């Protein structure tokens, strides 16, 4: 079991990530492939494993990540959500070598470093570029086709947890994040194969939802400016979902809600402000506002006001409706 110790300052500084990180989701999904049970034909793990047979660099990266005996390197679990995967990989590539080496030394303290990761600490100039290329290859096979559904599920969870944080505070948030976590003030107990006590020392904790969270529950580096704890949402449910990228449009949903309202609901899967949703849908601002009000009143979306800006995301019910086979 891992025990994360909070001070008053830690509680005050604990927060949620602003949005899901493609890089973090991509890395954590690799650990799902290490599940010991055989993957049933047609499942996400079965499909990805089949595709990886033809993608050597991605397969070697998955093998390396799954071989880790402890925490996953922090630079593979970036909490800094970017515009897209390339934006987050650019952040990875710009990480100073001394930071990468310090991070990898911490990971190495738990066990050996697999080859693709060890080369980074050896100062090989092309190693990081090769790593980024492997991540791209794996993302294309494993995450890209599902990203709309994954993003919708995680965004809905973030909106839900933001309401809990706003209405009940950090301690209530920590009490209900995940069944594998228990808040016993001032300690958060996390089911983990590692028996450790982790002290935040006034830095607080950054909380990030994930479709999967195996040993990555362990915040990576004690020297992080603010450690990130990835908590699992559901039971790999987002990887089982059929995304809009797979199923295309939703004609029957349009019959149910009206085509414009169904389009606004679908666009909400990516989240955004009222103005952003209007721009993506091609509808007028007033029309989008009207549809958003109806969707919110029926429990399909949630709206969070930040200053004068209103941000919209799917609720769990909205996500389930969008995922359903029509």
Features:
alpha/beta; three-stranded parallel beta sheet; four-stranded mixed beta sheet; globular
Secondary-structure blueprint:
Blueprint: E1 2-5, H1 8-13, E2 15-16, H2 22-32, H3 44-52, H4 56-66, H5 85-93, H6 97-108, H7 115-121, H8 127-142, H9 147-175, E3 181-184, E4 187-190, E5 196-199, E6 206-210, E7 228-232, H10 237-240, H11 244-247, H12 251-257, H13 259-267, E8 272-273, H14 274-281, H15 285-297, E9 301-306, E10 309-314, H16 316-323
Parallel strand pairs: 1-5, 2-6, 6-7
Antiparallel strand pairs: 1-4, 3-4, 8-10, 9-10
Helix pairs in contact: 2-8, 4-8, 5-8, 6-7, 12-13, 13-14, 13-15, 14-15
Q: Can you put this structure into words, describing what you see?
A:
With 326 residues, the chain is α/β, with parallel strands linked by helices. It folds into three domains: 2-15 and 148-238, no CATH class; 20-146, no CATH class; 249-323, Winged helix-like DNA-binding domain superfamily/Winged helix DNA-binding domain (Arc Repressor Mutant, subunit A). Helix content is 50%, strand content 13%. The protein has helices at residues 8-13, 22-32, 44-52, 56-66, 85-93, 97-108, 115-121, 127-142, 147-175, 237-240, 244-247, 251-257, 259-267, 274-281, 285-297, 316-323; strands at residues 2-5, 15-16, 181-184, 187-190, 196-199, 206-210, 228-232, 272-273, 301-306, 309-314. It has a four-stranded mixed beta sheet. The protein has a three-stranded parallel beta sheet with strand order 2-6-7, with helices on both faces. A three-stranded antiparallel beta sheet has the order 8-10-9, sandwiched between helices. Strand 3 (181-184) and strand 4 (187-190) form a beta hairpin. The chain is globular. It starts with a strand and ends with a helix.
């Amino acid at each position: 079991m891992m025990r994360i110790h909070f001070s008053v300052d830690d509680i005050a500084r604990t927060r949620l990530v602003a949005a899901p990180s493609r890089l973090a989701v991509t890395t954590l999904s690799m650990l799902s492939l290490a599940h010991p049970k055989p993957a049933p034909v047609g499942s996400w793990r079965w499909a990805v494993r089949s595709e990886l047979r033809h993608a050597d660099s991605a397969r070697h990266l998955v093998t390396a990540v799954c071989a880790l005996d402890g925490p996953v390197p922090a630079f593979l679990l970036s909490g800094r959500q970017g515009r897209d995967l390339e934006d987050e990989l650019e952040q990875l590539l710009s990480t100073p070598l001394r930071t990468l080496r310090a991070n990898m030394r911490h990971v190495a303290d738990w066990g050996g470093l697999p080859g693709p990761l060890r080369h980074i600490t050896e100062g090989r100039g092309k190693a990081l570029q090769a790593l980024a290329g492997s991540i791209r290859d794996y993302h294309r096979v494993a995450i890209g086709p599902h990203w709309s559904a994954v993003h919708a599920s995680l965004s809905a969870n973030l909106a839900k947890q933001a309401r809990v944080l706003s209405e009940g505070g950090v301690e209530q948030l920590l009490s209900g994040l995940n069944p594998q976590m228990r808040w016993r003030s001032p300690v958060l107990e996390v089911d983990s194969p590692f028996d450790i006590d982790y002290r935040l020392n006034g830095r607080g904790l950054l909380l990030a939802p994930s479709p999967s969270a195996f040993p990555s529950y362990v915040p990576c580096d004690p020297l992080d400016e603010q450690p990130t704890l990835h908590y699992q949402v559901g039971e790999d449910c987002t990887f089982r979902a059929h995304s809009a990228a797979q199923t295309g449009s939703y004609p029957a949903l349009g019959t149910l809600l009206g085509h414009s309202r169904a389009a606004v609901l679908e666009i909400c899967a990516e989240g955004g402000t009222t103005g952003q949703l209007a721009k993506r849908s091609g509808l007028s601002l007033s029309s989008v506002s009207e549809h958003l009000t109806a969707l919110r009143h029926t429990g399909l979306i949630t709206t969070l006001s930040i200053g004068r800006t209103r941000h919209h995301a799917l609720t769990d019910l909205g996500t389930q409706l969008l995922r359903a086979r029509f």
